[in-house]
Design a protein that fits this description.
Helices cover 48% and strands 16% of the residues. It is α/β, with parallel strands linked by helices. The strands form four sheets. Strands 1, 2, 3, 4, 5, 6, 7, 8 and 9 form a nine-stranded mixed sheet that branches. The chain has an eight-stranded mixed sheet with strand order 10-17-16-13-14-15-11-12, sandwiched between helices. Strand 5 and strand 6 form a beta hairpin. Helix 17 packs antiparallel against helix 18.
């Protein structure tokens, strides 16, 4: 039922999706006014809501403010704030958790007026510059892609300059650039006049602007050079001298010269925030000079330069400097111990702390809360490392405090940080906090071998023995986290012949992929210089250990892209130090990357670590690029890939029951076949065999889960989709039941699979088709019904539409109007199903209803019908069809008593398409009427029609939810099938 073209679903739900967020604020204000602002979201908001206000003032500078809004109920958030001082123009965005609303990238704006009705200075310029991001005078990041034309930019800036004489100097450059882009001859004339005006002012900034206009807009190099000489004579250590020194430092040819000129520039022209604006117009980026200086100095092992410049390092350089000066030698190469790393790490850490409390002028556009989040994101990884350095130096109290601060950035997402905190908690004997941390890390699948050993010790202390530990730890893992990982693995699935190779191992033996046919092969491309590759090996070692006794799985670690002549010795030493018993092969060819390039090319990807899981037939089934940071998570991911690679999937086509159509399907099965098979039936609406709904491949995920548990699963394309022929629009639910029986016939013909029992699993209308098929054919061994109607089709559609209308963000009178027309027409089609004059019946009924509706509109003074639109023609096309009339007339009380096999019926309690309580009750009663007591029902808490844990649970939310299907539902279906009586 999820894709039926119901009236409300078509008319209202789409409109609701467009109006997900809305804001009210004054479009124009007068100096001294109070800003009354409100924001509303159609979906639930977790946490608070704030409004970020960008003010362009009367001196033509931007400022940022942030105000918390208060919740006033009914999804509304409001606040009243004083107008920012000297504001001429305001822009807003609303922030609620991960939501950032700027009016769908078109902006929210307020113009500020004088008391006499004229614009305040900055009003028109702010409006124009904000919406011209490429000019570089607006708010960075406010728009994602919106921009206005050069013509519009010129209009707004010229209006401002004509109206406000004080705007001429601060806006001269963007105005002239807009004029030149809009009309080059006019721009040239205006630029010539501007140069005369600026030279007459006699200030250094005016001279700089005149120089830039001559050089960039007038292309008059002679005059630009003349202004340059005059400026240098008047200000020998001024802005243009700074520009010259900057360019010399960046253009130096040799490393030594670049280092010396860079240091000279920083010594002669130390950065000053007061010069930020003129540096910006001259394109002087101090960060580039610092980057050169530090890169060269660190490469030459002159790390003392970092300490010398530690108090002036720009914010944007800190992460890169820490990475090169501390992280690589300390955490990756292990050539620097904690005592040696500490002075550098602490100096950079203190600079990071400084910026957490002092926002640079060049990054003014971050609001206070954004700045806090920006710093945590930029520095969190290095807080993690500094905490570990402090821990290794025995400064446990400082280390623990910093580790907990770093957790604010990672939120339990770093197994390395969790390990540091766990070691510190164990040292300080805070066992309660340690137990809590370890359990959370297990739940989020962020465990390291060290943490697993800790948890094992804790388990033995409380249980007195080690037996049962592995099963206990597995029970602590969060099912939804594992499900999301599984879904990500399934999305990465491939199906092509893996490139063959024959490479030499450390003992000189040549190993080829072809020689390993019949086994699942796991490849890991790595290098001794690759930090993520080596970090990931803890997880790979856990995976290797899980399959240590399984001769059907082989792990090969291919050392690739090495440049260091001693790479073999380094790699051997690293593996020995870590105790990793890996089989290492060495890549060959130019650049030592033949095998790697073959796999990277086949996958259309690049980068290491790169992993590939290959099944016994030599087919590459799953790749994985990079490392997410969790050893236990990686081990579970590899295990999922290996187990999925042990199953088979055939793409097949079989005949329908009447031989006039052919049905395309995928049959998945474990190696060696299985006794029980499941046929998956889709709900309403043309769907492919994967059950793609809201961007989620529901049936593919469910099928893979069941195959892993030992079942054969067939999932097919609907009629007219993919490899299936036929006309979907001409088919009825009974026809879909026939297609299900055709699938049963096909499975019975597959003697190679060893199937002894076949059942049907139907979602929504698919559950109806499953019941019809099971009532027709005693070969059906079971039915799993997901969100299927237990009442008549008429009752189901009426309930569905009433529910959706009740939840819609429309006036109560319009809800009443929708309910009235739905009730009228649904009953009409039900009563006259099969009548060839249905078209005329609907039109007459609608005309009579329209007379009543017009009176409602008039009585309630609804403008344009209250924006109410009824799609009469599309409804007629649907209602005169065989499927719609058959669906309305479906009566489970006649179908369900004929079903005598075991039945599992599920429904979500947040499902707005199918009322769980009503339908599960109807299914149980209908089956009991025929004497069937082998019935299990479950009203699943917290899930929608697709069995996703939901927030608003509206249909437009399906695609926004990360979950494809709740793991407890997938697990319950598998458990129920495995517990069916043995054959």
């Amino acid at each position: 039922m999820k894709k039926v073209v119901f009236l409300f679903l078509v008319v209202v739900a789409a409109a609701a999706a467009r109006a997900q967020h809305s804001a009210r604020y004054p479009m124009r204000v007068v100096g001294g006014d109070v800003l009354n602002i409100s924001w509303r979201s159609d979906t639930a908001v977790a946490g608070g809501v704030s409004v970020v206000v960008y003010a362009f003032d009367t001196l033509y500078s931007w400022h940022v403010y942030e105000y918390a809004l208060r919740f006033t109920g009914d999804t509304a958030w409001t606040g009243s704030f004083a107008l920012p001082p000297a504001a001429g123009f305001l822009a807003y965005k609303f922030v609620a958790g991960s939501v950032c609303d700027n009016n769908n990238d078109t902006g929210y704006f307020t113009m500020v007026y004088r008391r006499d009705g004229r614009y305040m200075p900055g009003a028109e310029a702010g409006y124009g510059l904000l919406r011209s991001p490429r000019y570089g005078y607006g708010v960075p990041g406010y728009f994602r892609s919106f921009t206005i034309s050069d013509t519009a930019t010129y209009m707004w800036l010229s209006n401002e300059i004509l109206r406000e004489h004080g705007a001429r100097f601060p806006l001269v450059l963007p105005y002239l650039r807009a004029a030149t882009n809009f009309e080059p001859p006019k721009g040239a004339r205006e630029s010539t006049r501007a140069v005369r005006y600026l030279l007459g002012l006699g200030s250094e900034e005016a001279m700089v602007n005149a120089f830039l206009i001559c050089r960039e807009l007038l292309r008059d190099s002679l005059r630009a050079d003349s202004i340059h000489r005059v400026s240098l004579a008047a200000w020998p250590t001024g802005a243009l001298a700074r520009m010259d020194a900057y360019r010399r430092a960046l253009r130096a040819k040799t490393m030594e010269t670049r280092l010396s000129l860079g240091r000279a520039f920083l010594d002669s022209f130390p950065y000053r925030e007061s010069e930020e604006r003129i540096n910006r117009v001259l394109d002087i980026q101090y960060e580039l000079v610092y980057r050169n200086v530090f890169a060269i100095a660190i490469a030459q092992k002159k790390t003392g330069v970092v300490l010398e410049l530690r108090s002036t390092i720009p914010m944007l350089n800190l992460p890169e400097v820490y990475y090169k000066a501390v992280e690589i030698p300390y955490d990756d190469w292990r050539t620097m111990d904690a005592a040696t790393a500490y002075p550098l790490s602490d100096a950079l850490y203190q600079r990071m702390l400084y910026f957490c409390g002092h926002q640079p002028a060049g990054l003014w556009y971050y609001s206070p809360s954004e700045w806090k989040g920006y710093c945590e994101k930029a520095f969190g990884s290095y807080f993690r490392l500094h905490a570990r350095i402090l821990m290794e130096l025995g400064r446990d109290k400082e280390a623990l405090a910093l580790a907990r601060r770093a957790q604010a950035h990672y939120g339990g997402g770093s197994s390395d940080l969790d390990q540091t905190e766990a070691v510190l908690l164990e040292r300080t004997k805070d066992h309660k906090a340690l137990d809590s941390l370890l359990r959370v890390a297990v739940r989020l699948n962020q465990m390291t071998p060290v943490m697993i050993d800790m948890l094992r010790r804790r388990y033995v202390m409380s249980h007195g023995r080690d037996a049962g530990f592995d099963a206990w730890m597995e029970s602590l893992k969060d099912a939804r986290t594992k499900q999301l990982v599984r879904e990500e693995v399934l999305r990465s699935r491939q199906n092509f012949a893996a490139p063959d190779f024959a490479l030499v191992d450390g003992a000189g033996r040549r190993v080829s992929l072809k020689s390993l046919r019949g086994k699942v092969v796991v490849l890991d491309f790595w290098a001794t210089w690759c930090a993520p590759c080596k970090a990931a090996m803890a997880g790979m070692n856990m995976a290797v250990s899980r399959y240590a006794r399984d001769t059907g799985v082989v792990f090969l670690f291919i050392d690739t892209q090495e440049r260091d002549p001693d790479y073999k010795a380094k790699g051997k030493a690293f593996l020995k130090d870590k105790g990793y018993p890996f089989t290492v092969l060495f890549d060959e060819g130019p650049g030592m990357e033949d095998a790697y390039k073959a796999y990277a090319g086949a996958l259309h990807s690049s980068g290491i670590p790169m992993k590939a899981v290959i099944d016994g037939n030599g087919v590459l089934r799953f790749p994985s690029i990079g490392y997410k940071g969790s050893p236990s998570g990686l081990a579970d991911e590899i295990e999922m890939m290996v187990e999925l690679s042990r199953s088979r999937a055939d793409s097949v086509v079989f005949d329908g029951l009447n031989d006039s159509i052919h049905i395309g399907a995928t049959v998945g099965y474990p190696v060696g076949g299985a006794r029980t098979a499941v046929v998956i039936l889709s709900g309403t609406g043309k769907q492919d065999r994967d059950g793609t709904m809201g961007g989620h491949k529901v049936f593919a995920l469910l099928a893979d889960s069941l195959v892993r548990r030992g079942f054969v699963v067939l999932r097919s394309d609907d009629r007219g989709v993919g490899k299936s022929t036929g006309d979907y629009s001409a088919a009825t639910t009974a026809d879909f039941a026939s297609d299900a029986l055709a699938a049963v016939n096909y499975l019975c013909s597959r003697r190679d699979l060893g199937i002894r029992r076949i059942g049907l699993l139907g979602h929504s209308e698919g559950g109806m088709a499953a019941a019809i098929a099971a009532g027709r054919d005693e070969r059906i061994g079971f039915v799993v019904s997901l969100s299927s109607p237990g009442v008549t089709g008429l009752e189901a559609l009426l309930a569905q539409n009433r529910n959706m209308v009740a939840r819609s963000p429309i006036p109560a009178v319009n809800k009443m109007r929708y309910d009235s027309i739905n009730n009228l027409l649904f009953h009409l089609v039900y009563d006259h199903a099969g009548d060839p004059g249905m078209d005329a019946l609907i039109r007459r009924a609608y005309a009579r209803w329209k007379i009543w509706d017009d009176s409602v509109v008039a009585a309630n003074r609804l403008v344009d019908g209250g924006h109410f639109f009824f799609p009469l023609e599309s409804y007629i096309r649907q209602a005169t069809g065989r499927w719609y009339q058959g669906f309305l007339r479906y009566d489970p009380s006649r179908v369900l008593p004929l079903v005598h096999c075991p039945v599992l019926a599920l429904n979500g309690d947040r499902d707005i398409i199918s009322d769980g309580v009503v339908n599960l009750k109807g299914i149980a009663e209908g089956l009991a009427k025929g004497g069937n007591r082998r019935v299990t029902t479950w009203l699943v808490p917290g899930v929608n029609h697709l069995y996703q844990h939901c927030v608003s649970c509206q249909t437009d939310e399906y695609a926004r939810l990360p979950e494809t299907m709740a793991p407890e539902v997938v697990g319950r279906i598998g458990d129920w099938l495995q517990n069916l009586p043995a054959l």
